[in-house]
Structure formats: structure tokens, C-alpha cells
Amino acid sequence: MQNPFRPTAGATPPIVVSREGLLREFGYGLTIRSGAPGLLTIFTGARGVGKTVMLGAAEDLAQEQGWLVISETATPGFMARIGEAMRRALAELGDGPIGRRITGVTLAGFGVTTQLPPEEQVSWRDAGEQLLRLLDDHRTGLTITVDEVHAADRSEIAALAANVQHFIRDGLPIALLFAGLPAAVSDLLNEGVATFLRRADRIDLHSASIEETADSYVRLFAEGGHHLSPELARAAAEGTGGYPFLIQLVGYSLWQEAEAGNGDLDDAAVARAIAAARRRNERTVIEAALSTATARDMDFLIAMAQDDAASEVGDIGRRMSARPSLVGKYRARLIDAGLIEPAGYGRVEFAIPGLADYLRAYISR
Ligand SMILES: Nc1ncnc2c1ncn2[C@@H]1O[C@H](COP(=O)(O)OP(=O)(O)O)[C@@H](O)[C@H]1O
Ligand SMILES: [Mg+2]
């Protein structure tokens, strides 16, 4: 058996740990087909926590139910790309055999990079309405997923929300799922660009349970013919902190250890796998997240790294010798960048596992 772990952004893991039941409302909504709360869902969470994976799981579920899926990322022009995909689906399905269940048609949009002029918006809505009526006749519907909404152009999000709201009001079978970083999504909802989205089910993704992570390791290694004792699986799982990207990285490295060693895995192999996984997490997630940080942003983060848990913003200001207004500005910037999160009144904490350790090592270098 090949290494089953998938330590790559968006890749489906061999076992989706600790996400049981999160798609229940959405699945139920698919049977209602229009206006059910679960049909409007937003996944939020830190980088690497599994938002894209959840969108993928929802897409699979929708396709199993015979729904059409349009899967997009909120880079500029996504509204036009969704419109194009709808028109294409309409052209393909419009002349197709009637009564056939429409399964497994995933449409990636093509590269239209402009925003929609007003006349296009009308035809966007027309195309959507026609497609949805056609799907409705077949007792199915359309699921649109938009990933990375934190980066979205506000006017495109507003246009999408307005159109979808209109479809829902007409009782048409539409589902809309978003994923994005928590603070940016909160801003998006609070700014009033798309008030209607506040009604969405918001599912905040957190770390997986250590126990379920350990169980998943025991199962996967057994399937591959490698013996991994429950104690070692537990140690490996603890090394991940339940952070999904690390679950894949540690599993991946440990599998390589199992392939390399001819005997059983031992404590040393687990320790090596955890160390290798953390290094890779630093290189990929952490360094990518820090790549846009300025020198002052780094000062803020380093000031935070002196605390063992959440930091008081006041303390950070003193350590940086910066005025409160300036500290507030950096705080907001870093929250937007997904590096830190509010942790109760006047406090912040790191949003990415391993970031605190990384910064402490950085200070001592
Ligand atoms: N529930 C989970 N259990 C195990 N691994 C997961 C889970 N969710 C995501 N992963 C893995 O974590 C990594 C990051 O997932 P991804 O969906 O890209 O995160 P995000 O979109 O939040 O940045 C991927 O390697 C993926 O396979
Ligand atoms: Mg993602």
C-alpha cells in the first residue's frame, strides 16, 4: 500500500478526522432543496485546519444526491466564471434527455477576469434562473462553493449574495457554501455588503481530537501492514496537536519511517516523524503566512511570543514601545492576515499552530 497521507493544501485526507456530523444540516437541506438553513453555510478556521476539505466533502455529498456543483475560488472575476459555468451547464443540459438525474457534472469556470458590467448581471441572473428551473424540474439543484472568501472583492460577493437571495425567494433549489479565514469572514458579514449572508450557518473549524487522530493512525497503518501500537499512535497524535495539516505531515513522515525500517516503529521513529513534520509545517504554512509581514508586524508577533498563552494587547504595546492606536493598527492587519486571532477582550493569540515556537526559535537565532 502506498503512503495514504496527503499533506497538501486542499487534498482529501485518507480519513477526515473529527468532522462527524458537520454536514448533517447541509445534507438534510439537499433533500428539502430550497430555503433550508443548511443550504447556506460558511466554514471558517485558520490556515490548514481543513476548510477546503470540508467544501470538497460537501460537493461530493451534493453530487451523490444528483446536484450540479460549481466550485470556485474567490479570486477576481469569480462571479463571471460562475456565470459562464451556469451558461455552459444550461447549454449542455438544456438539450439533454429529460428525466435523467444530473450526476457528477462539476464545472470549473474558465478564465474570465473582468468584473460584471450591469447588463451582464442581468444575464447572470437569467442564466441562473433558467438553469435552476431546469434542475428543479428534475428534482435536483445547484450547489455553488466559493473558497477563500477572505480575499474576495466586496462587490462580487455582494452581487453573488443578492442573486442567490433572489433565487431563494423564488423557491429555487440553490445551495451556497463559503470558506474563509475567521476574522475576514466576520468583517465581511459585519460590513453589510451582504447582510443576507449573516443568516448562513457558520461552522468554525477547530483542531481534531487527539484520540480520534490516534485511532485514525492505528487504522491506516494496520491497513498498510505496518504495526503501530496504540501508545505510539497516541504519541504521534499528540505531536500534531490535532492540527489537520500536521496530522497529514506526521502521518506521512511516520509512514516513510515504516517503509525505511524493516522492523516495528519505535519511539525514536515517532520523534523523527514529528520533527520532520514540524519543519515542513514551518516551511510551508508558517513561512508563507509570514511572507507578507513587515518588520513592525514581526515586532508585534515577537512581543506576543513572550507569553505562554494569549497576550494582552496592552503588554504588546509596552514591549514594542508603540502608541495604542498604532498597536491597534498592527493588531487588525495581523488578524486580517490570519496570523493572530482575538482571544477575548483586549487579548490576542496565535492563529497557526507552531507559530509561537517558530518565533521563539527565531528570537534565539
Ligand atoms: N479533518 C481532517 N482530518 C485529517 N486531515 C485533514 C482534515 N481536514 C484537512 N486535513 C488535511 O489538512 C491539510 C489542510 O487542509 P485544507 O482543507 O487545505 O485546509 P484549509 O483550506 O483550511 O487551509 C490537507 O493536507 C488535508 O488533507
Ligand atoms: Mg483552503
UniProtKB/TrEMBL annotation:
InterPro entries: AAA_16, P-loop_NTPase. It holds the Pfam family AAA_16. Residues 31-162 form the Orc1-like AAA ATPase domain. This is Orc1-like AAA ATPase domain-containing protein. The lineage of its organism: Bacteria, Bacillati, Actinomycetota, Actinomycetes, Micrococcales.
